[in-house]
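Practice set, problem 2.
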Amino acid sequence: TGKPFAKYWIHHGLLTINGQKMAKSLGNFVTIKELVKKYPPGVLKLFFLQTHYSQPVDFTWERLEEKRRALERIINFLKILKRREKGEGLIVYTDLKKNISASELSKEIEECRENFTKAMDDDFNTPNAVAVLFEIAHLCNKISGDISFAKEYLPALESAKQMIFEFAGIFGLSFKNIEEEKSDTWVTVAISMREGFKKEKKYKEADEIRKQLEEKEIILEDNKDGSTTWRRKL
């Protein structure tokens, strides 16, 4: 790449796969080239970061899929915020009664900075530090995706975005080149949020997203394997 490999080196715990030593002789060998064909590099980075460097790392495809979904939650927030910045309406819904004020949101976001610094000062506790990153996205998703969203939240959400960029940059993650949302892509984002509500057993919110999509002439079809597909109303 023409760049230094690393400024600092920390010896990590051993890497295993499904509890076994990774080796070609065992037929359980996975290369980075194989991984990046299926997942973005950021997913693999998160996989390593969510184990403390002094502990062994056990690789499973299920864990990698968990990190993909986690990364998607941050990306969803940034995509939603882009549309909020333009003043565009969104077809999402959250529990309005639990919303916090703009000033309270700003305060909680600043507390996240303190928690991130505390985690990294604690012997490079990257699992806790990464958890802060996801907490920021979770906190902001509840606000930016609310059906009664108000512009007064934008400064706090902008601050959260910059904080995500800053913290992610420390870990070699980048979210600055996220593509502009297209109408079809936004349907996928709404479906992802609906799936999140279903996993949290918030079926009322999940049904509300379905209803709002139907009003936009988007029909959802839940498949037996748990996936969801969509089509335009004929």
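Problem 2, part (b): a different protein.
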Amino acid sequence: MTEIAVKLRPRKQTRISMEKTGKILEAALYVFSNSGFRGATLDQIAERAEISKPNLLYYFDSKEAIHRELLTRLLDKWLEPLRAMDPDGDPVEEIVSYVKRKIEMARDFPRESRLFANEIMQGAPVIHAVLARDLKALVDEKAKVITAWAEEGRIASVNPHHLIFSIWATTQHYADFSAQVRLVLGTDNIAFEDAAEHLDRTFRRILTPSFAEKR
């Protein structure tokens, strides 16, 4: 009985427990995004969070539990812009707005993007079931919307899944390969405004029927 009670205590969402949990997750995000899951240790996370290891283990019983919680929260945030794509909106504007939000996320959440990329490159061992269920369902849903827009002649005929993959690749690149981008540009300042403008023009051309007819 005592053992079960101890395990359940952190689930009481008091102000202190929420603050502690947030501090631990923020520290873990830094450690995981820089060292990867295998290179990260509980000692590193505790030190970064400025708490003792026993205190950390009061809230999370393992490194895996912290990693899983981070990825679960991240995936929900990552899917939000795609969920916001409105079937009743202007097709081109809805899609380029999605592109814009994704490039903004690459700018504002680079560590989260690298954490997610590392999980995927490892074969998604922690969130495989969630990707296969929630992500696939959402992408399939939006793919049907994009296909309907194309069939109505409101955008060019495109493969909806590969369109979404292309958006992911061209936006998340700026976070996941930021070191390469900085080296090639020869500056520490990634001009996200320029990237956003370029991607806006690129996807507008891809989605405009007249451009597709000229190919």
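Answer key, part (b): The first helix runs from residue 2 to 8. DSSP finds twelve helices and no strands in the chain.
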